[in-house]
Design a protein that fits this description.
The complex is a heterodimer of chains A (about 240) and B (about 300). Chain A has about 240 residues and is α/β, with parallel strands linked by helices. Chain A contains five helices and 15 strands. By secondary structure, chain B is α/β, with parallel strands linked by helices. The chains are: A alpha/beta (about 240), B alpha/beta (about 300).
Chain lengths: ~240, ~300
């Protein structure tokens, strides 16, 4: 974990309520895809945990959905403004388990952490298939960005306005895969748990106090013992989850 | 300038103590700074049996604070002694404050007896603001007689200073503090969190799964100062002040209210360096106020 000040380089809308923020700062403690950062906002007491979409030596990319007062405040921030951010939080995805044909399943605002994961998997020589699930055409983001990485991309929409009509699980029916990685709302994770033909890793969400393992605010029970979503998670193995 | 204070016969390099439940068993913080700069810290509330605690969500945001309803999640006293304390020994070389909770007098007694035998433990901080299964649904900390009963029973089986941690959710905290003093307590710490609640207006449901939880953070500081002032004026034993402390100034103000030492809670969760920064800032604030020795501060 590292605490440092980041400077906003860019903050723009991808859809009506999903925003992309690029920042410059010390990213040296971000060690794995699927980790998250915790952002302090003026006038708010608790930090806001946001998953890392992508990073390099100098920049950090976050994609967030406006869901409450904190993210509303983030949306209105301008390039040049600074944010106090804790980086390097959580365990992240384990690339070594992917096999040759990993399947990445993202639902809505669960899509962002899969971007850096997809990039890393391609870099190590795997051939990922990505299924992105949204409610409707207007909510879709990052379809082209995943394609540009060289992944096979399928999009599902609940209303059928783009791609396959239905949920990500409808997209995975005919897929041939060696392992899966997913992030999204809990009902989606549950459905994947039932539909999956292989083992996989799931990223979970919970209201957090500290985000670094001190307060026990985000604990959950697993078959391998009690875990803190922020410390031993947010990524969990399919074989340890109690649905 | 001298920041040393004496807490129940043990000298602290400074009066700053991370509060139980906000500092785990220290390792998360030891990864980012040398926690030996602390006066001491109060470790995660420990019970006789392991506890998972309450369902989630356990946390809610508030103006200048937060609500938690963790529910005393801890691995149980046996594991704390067998696993947590040896790990802690590697990164913390001062006496630690053992925070204990229970659901019956017998549980408090047994947990305290076991922790009292550990060399690393300097003080026992007995949290009497849990539901009282033993006494028929009332909290030990809300009745002078029940608080005194726990105090006396724990004192019988321990050799180390026993500090009773009081709940502010009572009509007369002074009478409870005095009952603990009369029963043999070596110190009083206060205040635990204030009972609070937030509602998710879209879902029309409480945010916290357990409906209510403990409200802490800077918002409660004035309430804490008032209660520390009232209690320290009524008892002769040392008082540890806590509740919304977030700066070196707050530490000094708490000592002017009559506290011998000061705990920092919720702030650790927001700024993991909070206690380190407060300790570094203390001499600066002392100089501004013309304070040479922190231990010279008198209750106003």
């Amino acid at each position: 974990m590292k605490q440092s000040l980041f400077t906003i380089l860019e903050n723009r809308a991808l859809t009506k309520d999903v925003f992309k923020m690029m920042l410059s700062g010390d990213t040296s403690d971000i060690r794995a895809t699927g980790q998250f950062v915790n952002i302090r906002l003026t006038g708010k007491f608790l930090r806001r945990p946001i998953s890392v979409c992508d990073w390099d030596e100098k920049t950090l990319t976050l994609i967030y959905k406006v869901v409450g007062e904190g993210t509303e405040q983030m949306k209105n921030m301008q390039p040049g403004e600074q944010l106090d951010i804790l980086t390097g939080l959580g365990n992240g995805y384990d690339l070594s388990k992917s096999g040759e044909k990993p399947l990445l399943l993202g639902g809505g605002v669960g899509v962002p952490p899969l971007y850096a994961l997809c990039k890393a998997l391609i870099r190590k020589g795997a051939a990922p298939t990505v299924i992105l699930g949204f409610n409707t055409r207007d909510e879709i983001f990052y379809e082209d960005e995943f394609r540009a990485l060289g992944a096979k991309v399928l999009v599902t929409t609940v209303d059928g306005s783009h791609g396959i009509k239905g949920f990500v699980t409808d997209g995975m029916k005919d897929a041939d895969y060696s392992f899966f990685y997913t992030c999204g709302p809990e009902p989606m994770l549950r459905a994947i748990g039932k539909a999956a033909k292989t083992r996989g890793q799931y990223s979970f969400e919970e209201r957090m106090g500290c985000g670094f393992g001190a307060c026990m605010g985000c604990s959950c029970k697993t078959l391998t013992g009690n875990k803190r979503i922020c410390k031993e998670g947010p990524v969990m193995e399919s074989e340890e989850i109690i649905w | 300038m001298n920041t040393k204070v004496n807490l129940c016969g043990i000298q602290l390099d400074n009066p700053v103590i991370p509060a139980s439940g906000t500092f785990g068993f220290g390792y998360e913080f030891a990864e980012i700074y040398d926690i030996n700069v602390l006066g001491t810290f109060s470790f995660k509330g420990t019970t006789l049996a392991p506890r998972f605690g309450n369902p989630t969500p356990r946390i809610a945001e508030c103006t200048a604070g937060m609500i938690n309803a963790v529910g005393l999640q801890n691995p149980g006293v046996e594991k704390v002694i067998a696993e947590e304390l040896p790990k802690l020994k590697k990164c913390f070389h001062k006496p630690v404050m053992a925070n204990v909770s229970g659901f019956s007098v017998e549980e408090y007694v047994e947990t305290c007896r076991l922790l009292d035998q550990e060399d690393q433990v300097g003080w026992l901080e007995v949290n009497v603001s849990c539901p009282n299964v033993h006494g028929g649904g009332m909290s030990f900390g809300t009745s002078p007689a029940a608080a005194a009963e726990v105090t006396a029973a724990v004192k019988k089986v321990t050799t180390k200073p026993v500090i009773i941690k009081l709940s502010p959710n009572v009509t007369d905290i002074v009478s409870i503090a005095k009952a603990c003093e009369d029963a043999g307590a070596d110190g009083i710490s206060l205040i635990n969190t204030l009972l609070g609640m937030r509602i998710d207006m879209k879902r029309r449901k409480p945010i916290i799964a357990n409906t209510m939880g403990g409200f802490s953070g800077p918002a409660i500081f004035p309430v804490a100062v008032r209660m520390v002032y009232q209690v320290s004026g009524a008892v002769k034993i040392p008082v540890i002040g806590m509740g919304g402390v977030s700066s070196a100034k707050d530490v000094i103000e708490m000592m002017m209210a009559g506290a011998t030492a000061v705990q920092v809670g919720a702030m650790n969760l927001v700024n993991p360096f909070a206690c380190k920064e407060i300790i570094e800032q203390l001499p600066v604030e002392m100089a501004k106020l013309g304070i040479e020795n922190l231990s010279d501060i008198k209750r106003v």
